[in-house]
Fold this sequence. Notes:
Layout: E1 3-4, E2 16-17, E3 38-44, E4 48-56, H1 60-63, E5 66-75, H2 83-103, E6 111-115, H3 117-125, H4 129-142, E7 150-152, H5 155-166, E8 175-180, E9 185-190, E10 198-203, H6 207-216, H7 224-236, H8 238-250, H9 252-255, E11 258-262, H10 264-273, E12 282-285, H11 287-299, H12 306-311, H13 320-333, H14 336-353, E13 361-365, H15 371-384
Parallel strand pairs: 3-6, 6-7, 8-11, 11-13
Antiparallel strand pairs: 1-2, 3-4, 4-5, 8-9, 9-10, 12-13
Amino acid sequence: MKFISIKFYPVIILSLISGFVQVNAQNFVANKTKTDNLYAGIDVGSKGVKLSIIQMGKNASVTGSFTAIKDTAINTDFISFTPATFSATVKGMSSLYNVALSEYNIPATKIFTVISSGIKGQAEKENKMGNVKALTDSFKIYINDPERSVSIIDAMGEARLSHLGIVPEARRYNTFLIDIGSGNTKGGYFRNGNTKELKLFNLSWGTKTIANATDKRLEEDKTLANYKKQLNRVLAGEPNNEIVYAVNESGAYNMNDNFAFSGGIAWAVATMLYPELSENSVVPLNFEDLNNFNEKLAGNYANMSPEILANNVIDKTLNKTEIANEIRKVQKVFDQKALMAGTSLLLNIVRQFEGTLEKKNFFLVKNGQVGWISAYVSQSVNNMY
Length: 385
């Protein structure tokens, strides 16, 4: 299966994998004479704050074309809603805002700030929307911009933008996109050839919330064996009920041939499960591979070190040092238990679509984090003209 990299692409066609998607981010050295068409998006998610910098094409108001220049993140765990994580998130937002403003010379009017649906959903569940408002107010004070707009996006809005920002037009109406975030899971597909009519898939569970719920059940027994047992119990409860209901209610199985998964855990699983495809931003996913990988996380994690996984790659033309470094990045973000939580959630969702009569195509999108925020920036830019 051949992957084709594209430097410039429309917001709805990021790149292709047999007609599917791929996102490539680049390093960019700021140049004061070439920054008129740079834009930035700051996304406050459940796990932290992300910065996406994109360069719009000359006809952005018509085509929406852009190049992903940089994406980076600061882990602050805002969803814990503690004074410490609140402070870290405000500082993280301000730091990334200043990176866009000072290092990339992007004017304030071209820096967009969004609170993700995962934060919104969990805050509403815990009656913490006051914390979210305090966050946005504090951020405005920090950067001395009291009139700045900070949007709080809901699951429908985020799912629609994710689809527009990740799935290519050629697969627009037969692809079901599911983004597994830290605080929630959202996605869907477009019906009746209309990009304004998204059939929403929404779970109140994500990688972090599954892990948090499992941690609360451990009590005095902090062993890995107990973690696995409690994780299975958590997933068998409310998350499973939500997954089954959401899948059945969506009607997605009969309407879609392709199922694409994005989010941090999709990146992590793709990198560790298919290290030989480390340079590809989108990889095809086999259900049995995912199931075996999930079992190894708890039972044989010692043999999943960056060095061992890289050395297991057969293709001698690949750079095993670079492959090991990519796996190392994953394991810095996700420890063993976080990988177990996220992969188990992913597996439970994929299992619902793994049919016996009609086989579906599954994909993992590694760089989906620049998808919905880039689509949001592109949409906002178009509204300027």
